[in-house]
Design brief:
181 residues; mainly alpha; Rna Polymerase Sigma Factor, Chain: A
Length: 181
């Protein structure tokens, strides 16, 4: 299947064939959503769960997509919420804050094929894992997904100014961490 199908085409198909439009959505956005989820929840199995739950929600709510934002932003928002829900469940299940699990994630990242063992990448990942939750999320959305502050504002329901401040603080903390290694 051809990747990078235009959103306009998908929305046109949606008018007459919801199943075909859904297949196009999964084909077009599945990989991007997986990697977004993976950066948030770290573990492959958790990312798979987030992607599955995201596309189930997309399917159930496809007819209610209002076009207030782009289709991708809408799906990305659903994926972000699914990932945050999974993180909260994980925190409750383990009875410890996510920050306390950073060593588990760091060890998982070292042995994972996602990371090629490059020392600089590992230091960056370690620094990112030490960020508070909101700063981590904003940094990953900006750095990895190259998302604009306006798009992040729609996804997270936070002001652009607050997002810029979170990103700035995250970058400063990462710089401090990296300079210490």
């Amino acid at each position: 299947m051809n990747k990078n199908i235009s959103e306009e085409y998908i929305l046109e198909v949606l008018k007459s064939d919801a199943e075909k439009a859904f297949r196009l959505i999964v084909d077009n956005y599945g990989s991007k959503i997986y990697w977004h989820a993976r950066r948030l929840v770290i573990l492959h199995e958790d990312a798979d769960d987030v992607v599955q739950n995201t596309f189930i929600s997309v399917w159930k709510n496809l007819d209610s997509f209002r076009k207030d934002s782009s289709l991708y932003t809408w799906i990305y928002t659903i994926a972000t919420n699914e990932a945050l829900s999974l993180i909260k469940k994980r925190e409750k299940r383990n009875s410890v804050p996510l920050d306390s699990l950073e060593n588990i994630f760091s060890i998982s990242a070292e042995g994972d094929t996602l990371f090629d063992g490059d020392r600089a990448e590992q230091i960056l990942q370690d620094a990112i894992l030490k960020l508070p939750g909101k700063q981590m999320l904003v940094f990953k959305m900006r750095y990895y997904d190259d998302m604009s502050y306006e798009e992040m504002s729609k996804v997270l329901g936070t002001s652009v100014g607050a997002l810029k401040a979170s990103y700035h603080h995250a970058v400063k903390k990462i710089e401090l961490f990296v300079s210490g290694n």
